[in-house]
Specification:
By secondary structure, this protein is of the alpha+beta class. Helix content is about 35%, strand content about 15%. The protein contains 6 helices and 6 strands, in the order H-H-E-E-E-H-E-H-E-E-H-H. The strands form 2 sheets. A 4-stranded mixed β-sheet has the order 4-3-5-6, with helices on both faces. It has a two-stranded antiparallel sheet with strand order 1-2. Strand 1 and strand 2 form a beta hairpin. Helix 1 crosses helix 5. The two termini are about 20 Å apart. This is SH3 domain binding glutamate rich protein like 2.
Length: about 170
């Protein structure tokens, strides 16, 4: 199962702009963007806020990790999984945005549409949390958990590994 998640994400081949990808939102800094959109980095986006895909800070363009969550889920398991992902990202100071799919149908539909077909459940819709690096699908909670257990979260997220990570070992 460990390699299946990463392989499925790579095999999806989703590129910026394919299948109705989100347009870029350029920001001077995360703090200015937060002030402009009425939210803070790592917090749920305001329903009137356009989805964030790109950030530009000091002439540096970088990808943004987006965690699609459901703030009004009745499932304790889903809430715990969402909290696990968010807490891990916060604890490791990984910049991310939460996208609440319960606030805008457009966000929910975008998430469903951009999860590769081979990662879709046999029945029903994919459940949150779902993780993307910009428009590139990373995986669901199970894939995240496997990456966390094997200390390969940075690769899973498509980020450069940090010094203490196993990912630097040959």
């Amino acid at each position: 199962r460990g390699g299946r998640c990463a392989a499925a994400a790579r095999a999806s081949g989703l590129q910026r702009g394919e299948q109705g990808g989100l347009g870029p939102v350029l920001q001077a800094t995360p703090q200015l963007a937060a002030a402009a959109f009425g939210c803070r980095s790592g917090s749920s986006l305001n329903p009137s806020t356009p989805p964030l895909g790109w950030r530009e800070a000091a002439n540096e363009v970088r990808m943004v990790i987006r965690v699609f969550i459901a703030s009004s889920s009745g499932s304790v398991a889903i809430k715990k999984r969402q909290q696990d992902v968010v807490r891990f990202l916060e604890a490791n100071r990984i910049d991310f945005e939460e996208v609440d799919i319960t606030m805008l149908e457009e966000q929910r539909q975008w998430m469903y549409k951009n999860i590769p077909e081979e990662r879709q459940p046999a029945q029903g819709n994919p459940l949150p949390p779902q993780i993307f690096n910009d428009d590139q699908y990373c995986g669901d909670y199970d894939c995240f958990f496997e990456a966390k257990e094997s200390n390969t979260v940075f690769s899973f997220l498509g980020l450069k590994p940090r010094l203490a990570s196993k990912e630097l070992e040959p």
